[in-house]
Specification:
mainly alpha, disordered N terminus, three-stranded antiparallel beta sheet, Multidrug-efflux Transporter Regulator, Chain: A, Domain 2
């Protein structure tokens, strides 16, 4: 059973794993080429591989892809997507650092 992106967003049901890049693409709405490209540039970790060399994706990897589709929809650059992805991977630990950094940037912008 293949879950389409719209259906998954409604039910919030991300499978524990999918057994091919095609299934990951169908689930997330990203193309297979985009998934490969995101892996190549470090936006996504490389997929796990089965003994036959085929890709498999975990629930965590699929959640990362869904997150990237949402970032992509905002129109931000790949560089900015990498920054947000990095912050997301850090979790709540990075919040104090980011607040400080944002305040510093705002003060610098006001001076200019």
């Amino acid at each position: 059973m293949v879950i389409q992106q719209e259906e998954a967003a409604k039910v919030g049901d991300i499978p524990e794993t999918v057994s091919s890049i095609k299934q990951a693409a169908e689930f997330t709405g990203l193309s297979e080429d985009t998934i490969r490209f995101y892996e190549k540039i470090g936006l996504l970790p490389y997929a796990d591989r089965k003994a036959n060399g085929h890709r498999t994706y975990s629930k965590h990897q699929l959640e990362g892809m869904v997150f990237l589709t949402r970032l992509k929809a905002t129109g931000i650059t790949l560089k900015e997507m990498k920054q947000y992805r990095s912050l997301s991977d850090q979790g709540t630990v990075s919040i104090p650092q980011n607040l400080h950094s944002n305040r510093t940037q705002e003060k610098n912008a006001e001076r200019n």
